[in-house]
Amino acid sequence: MLFTTLLSAAALVGVSLAQTPQGFTPSVNTKLDVIFNSTVVKKPGELLTKALTASQPQIAIANASATETFMFVMLDLDVPGQGSNATRRTLLHAMVTDFKATTQQVLSPSVTNGKLLVSSQKGPATYIGPGPPATDTIPHRYVQLLFQQPANLNVKATDFANNQARFSFEINAFMKTNGIKAPVAGNFFTVDGKASGGAGGAGATGSRSASAGLPKSTLQPFTGAVGRTGVSVGLAGLVGGLALLGL
């Protein structure tokens, strides 16, 4: 009986520590601080609005070394199926390389010694904001993962030049193919297509997230190395296509 109780307690602790949704792999217990303007995602699964999350967030992590290079990935886990196939799919919303730690710390009660990370890149998969359809029956879960970036990573913007390359994106297969180790940090938030809310916080049923002492933007101008991309006619078409699908 005692052994069973201890196992149950350990399982509950594991769930409570996880920064990624239950059952999702790769799971991670270390928190990635995700900041939209001055709003911090203070707890995993927090409900935010489409308007608030429309632009790429700033990210921060504790104990990051200046010598490390990181890659940021964001996935929607709840894209509706097509036609008669009701199985939900994943959608790659962002893959941005070459993040480096700065000396700037995030000033927020929700962040512990978080060092702001910055990158001059906007790809290889440019950030696309959440857009779950108002007709969907559930809020969508958007997972953010931070990986140590391999020195020989060779992923190009052309790999994600159309919608289909982003749909049903398999993060575990991508990690295996490119020699990427388990994520060093993660987080996730939710967006409800039915919710109405302003740009400053969560929707009607969600709690407002914490404010952080940050400048409005620390993203550097794109210089065009690994993952070169721009807001081209092709990207505009991609964003427009996803908007029509409500993703």
Automatic annotation (TrEMBL):
<dbReference type="Pfam" id="PF01161">
    <property type="entry name" value="PBP"/>
</dbReference>
<dbReference type="GO" id="GO:0030414">
    <property type="term" value="F:peptidase inhibitor activity"/>
</dbReference>
<feature type="signal peptide">
    <location>
        <begin position="1"/>
        <end position="18"/>
    </location>
</feature>
<dbReference type="InterPro" id="IPR035810">
    <property type="entry name" value="PEBP_euk"/>
</dbReference>
<dbReference type="GO" id="GO:0005543">
    <property type="term" value="F:phospholipid binding"/>
</dbReference>
<keyword id="KW-0732">Signal</keyword>
<dbReference type="InterPro" id="IPR036610">
    <property type="entry name" value="PEBP-like_sf"/>
</dbReference>
<dbReference type="InterPro" id="IPR008914">
    <property type="entry name" value="PEBP"/>
</dbReference>
<dbReference type="GO" id="GO:0046578">
    <property type="term" value="P:regulation of Ras protein signal transduction"/>
</dbReference>
<protein>
    <submittedName>
        <fullName>Phosphatidylethanolamine-binding protein</fullName>
    </submittedName>
</protein>
<dbReference type="GO" id="GO:0030162">
    <property type="term" value="P:regulation of proteolysis"/>
</dbReference>
